[in-house]
Amino acid sequence: MMNYLQAGIITVLCILSAPLFDGIMRKWRARIHSRMGPPIYQTYLDLLKLFGKEDITRSPLSVLYISCIATATFILSLKGDLITFIYLLTASSVCLVLYSLLMGNPFAVVGGSREVMMFVIVEPVMAAAFLSYAIKAQSFLMSHIIAWSNIYGINISSIFAIIAMLLAMQAQMGKLPFDLAEAEQELVGGVFMEASGSTLALFKWGLALRQFLIAYLIAFVFIPWPTSTGISLFVLTLIKALIILLCAVTVEAVFPRLRIDQALGFYARVLVAASFMAIAFSTMGV
Amino acid sequence: MAITVEQQVLERFKDKATNVKSLPNRLFIDLPREYVKEAVQTIFNELGARYQISVGTDARPLHGNFEILHFFAFDKNNFRVALRFKVPPDDPKIDSITSIIPGANWAEREFRDFIGVEPVGHPDPRRLVLPDDWPEGVHPLRKEVPYNYQPPATTGCEFKFKEPPPGATALPIGPFFPVLEEPIQFRLFIEGENVVGADHRGFYVHRGIEKLGESQLTYNQIPFLAERICGICGFTHSVCYCETVEGAAGIEVPLPAKYVRSYCLEMERVHSHLLWLGLACHILGFDTLFMQFWRIREPIMWMAERITGNRKNYGMNLVGGTRRNIPEEIREELLRVIDQTEKETLELSKTLLNDSAFIARTKEVGILTPEEVRLTGALGPTARASGVDIDVRRDFPYAAYPYLKFDVIVLNGCDVLSRALVRVYETIESLKMMRQILKEFPDGPTMVKIEEELPPYREFMSATESPRGEDFHYVMLGENNRPYRWKVRAPSYMNIPSVFWMFKPGTTIADAPITIGSVDPCISCTERFEIVDRSTGESKFLSQKEMYEISRRGGRK
Fold first, then answer.
1. A179 at the B interface (CB within 8 A)?
2. Beta bridge partners of B173
3. Does A176 sit within 8 Å of B193, measured CB to CB?
4. Who has the most CB within 10 Å: A31, A227, B158, B300?
């Protein structure tokens, strides 16, 4: 019971602090651009503003979207099952795709089809990285995986898995050079084009949470060192997650957007060169 | 002695010509209108002239007819030819030349809209410039139509876009697209991610500047209006207008004024190219370099303010010279800014061109072959990136360019990457020219005084090399110290239609914005806000003060 309570508190904290991390990222990006940038609490203001605006499409899919990601956060803080975690992340993408396809706006439809193409190739990259850890720990439970890493430390397959994960992260977060589904300059916001008011606010909040969640996942499960417990573990993981997020923003700032064929080609290579290698090495036990 | 182009042209047309007017490096030939296709075929395909523009003039008060002029340039020979066809008002028709020169498409639709002369056999006879609810039969550039004529508001009129091919969807790029915030619509027809066709509607906020110049303003007021044609390269328009009027009236401008003009033109080119490089990065989602290019552009804007008092709209030109000189005491300071900008441009361009993702996104995208450049009449960096060696500064020297040393940058890539490279190298050339101008600046006054009215009904055409290509003006002087006909052809007028030729099979949606952006389209959206109450149909314009107040108040009611 205590376990669930603790995980619940962490989840709520994550949901509430996701916009703050988004604000920090915006500030960091602005500094790279030689801009002043907005204050770090700007994302809260944006969300507040959007909740007050007229909602034209009124889609429950945005609620479903953020709920999927929130539940995934809960699973992660519970150190639960990896498969469920991936399921929930994919489900959130599906919500987004469904939403964009239902709108019938050509920009949204193109954005939706790009989102599908991207997760069809990026999801396996991530899943394979999970799988290589699961093979070593003989379990899909995150608690077992973390425990295994704490005991046996880093090895060759973990390095490949971490590389695959970090590369998949950029697309999973919907960041440049892979923000193809949104691609403001090409598709005017693509999947989000028809969203407004609270629908858009929930999507934006969900996306901020998703970005934070991916970083948190890498910091918590894939790079669990240095080991710690209790509050200090939580703070340490947050700091690691923040560093990962800042790396993602830096990558975003120094690359132009790729075309969909170039992006798919990139992840196909990552899949072969990093993810499959991670699995191969972990079956060999190294 | 080899025969000159002038003799060649005269030789071809001597049987048909009803009148020939020879000006320095310019020739006006009057021909019967039945002969138009044959004449254009001869000059465009056999003599190899470059098509510039077609102009329609309502010359009924002068000789009872409309005039259609087709302008051609011989770039290698510093020679321009105008073919004039008189069209009687009771049968306002002339054969369309778009089948021979695709680049004449817009120009012919424009004179149909404005003068009411029908191009017979035009492949796309839709309206180009006039709004969809504009009444039939009212042609604004006819002399009897007042400049402030407002047709009654109507509803239910709609522009007929082309139907997408079967199985394709229409995707509107604009009006006001995130990376083309201007009143123009490119309608892409897409299958999945692939572009299979396109259509266009523009001129949503056409301001009728030509009409205003012909009916309301005097010679020396027009330079200030001409400068407001464009919010980026306005100075080139005011120089071009002044050079045209000075040429028509035979006014020789003092040398320092020529140097000031060239300096400001090159300053404008530097800021325009840096702006474009930034925007190109932005279109590709490369916002870091976008911001950095705009950062290094800022000292150039400061420089403009230091010399002219304004960041844009310099207000320097008058017929007869320039209103200000470049003060001697600031020249050292300006040289330092030039050095700094040159250094930063080189560094930043190097970063850009070493970026493999940038190369991947621009190489072999938006191909325009040299032959297509000839057919569409594409200009400036768009033409030069396709290996077409034209530059007004060298081919038809004006202002101080005969005294300046510079290279014309020509590349053979034919793609977006080459267009970016041409602009990078041109920026460096421009900075070199600015440095040379400051070092060799001649002494003396910058204005000649013009006492009496300019002689009416003389005509002249000139061009300047704007950042986007050849800017062309044609002026026929008139009575009351104002032009009888003033025609402006900005380079984007030729470059934007060439975009449709760049949508080759295999172009994707992701390539479309950068392809459109690669010609640096400039739609001139400086129209003031007009607020229309839809329930009463009343409209009002906002004054500058009201505009400021609204902007400062922000979104609050």
1. yes
2. B186
3. no
4. B300
Per-residue model confidence as pLDDT tens digits over A115-131: 888 888 888 888 888 88
Question: Would the CB atoms of A262 and B360 count as touching at under 8 Å?
Answer: yes
* Contact flag A257-B292 (C-beta cutoff 8 Å): no
Burial B36-50 (b: 16+ CB within 10 A, else e): beebbebbbeeeebb
Torsion from C-alpha of B330, B333, B339, B344, nearest 10 degrees: -120
B513 vs A35: CB contact, 8 Å cut-off? no
CB A213 within 8 A of CB A130: no
Mean pLDDT, residues B456-479 taken together: 90
Is residue B536 very low, low, confident or very high in pLDDT (cuts 50, 70, 90)?
low
Which chain B residues touch A110 with a CB distance below 8 Å?
171, 190, 193, 509
Quote the minimal CA–CA distance from B555 to chain A in Å: 12
Contact between B499 and B471 under an 8 Å Cβ cutoff? The reply is no
A254 touches chain B (CB under 8 A): yes
Report, as an integer, the average pLDDT of B70-91. 91
**pLDDT, averaged across chain B:** 87
Q: Does A260 touch chain B (CB under 8 A)?
A: yes
- Distance separating alpha carbons of residues B427 and B520, to the nearest angstrom: 15
Whether A185 sits inside 8 A of B285 (CB atoms) is yes
Q: Is there a contact between B291 and A187 if contact means CB atoms under 8 Å apart?
A: no
**Cα angle at B360 between B358 and B362, to 5 degrees?**
70
Q: Residue B178, SS3?
A: coil
* Chain B residues within 8 A of A185 when measuring between CB atoms: 178-179, 282-285, 513
Report whether pLDDT(B238) > 70.
Answer: yes
Cβ distance B361 to A256 less than 8 Å, yes or no, reads yes
Strand order from edge to edge, sheet including B169-173: B169-173, B185-191, B194-201
Separation CA A8–CA A12 (nearest Å): 6
Tokens of residue A34, six digits: 């030689």
Task: Compute the distance between CA of residue B364 and CA of residue B254 in angstroms, rounded to an integer.
Answer: 46
Judged by DSSP in three states, B461 sits in strand
Q: Look at residues A55, A46, A56, A49 and name the one whose alpha carbon lies nearest to residue A20.
A: A46
Q: Which two tokens stand for residue A25?
A: 């990222």
Comparing alpha-carbon positions, the chain B residue that sits nearest to A176 is B285
∠ Cα A45 A47 A53 (to 5°): 105
Q: Which of A7-21, B259-273, B535-549 has the lowest mean pLDDT?
A: B535-549
What's the distance, CA B508 to chain centroid?
Answer: 28
Residue pLDDT, tens place only, B19-77? 888 888 899 999 998 889 989 998 999 888 999 999 999 989 989 999 999 999 998 88
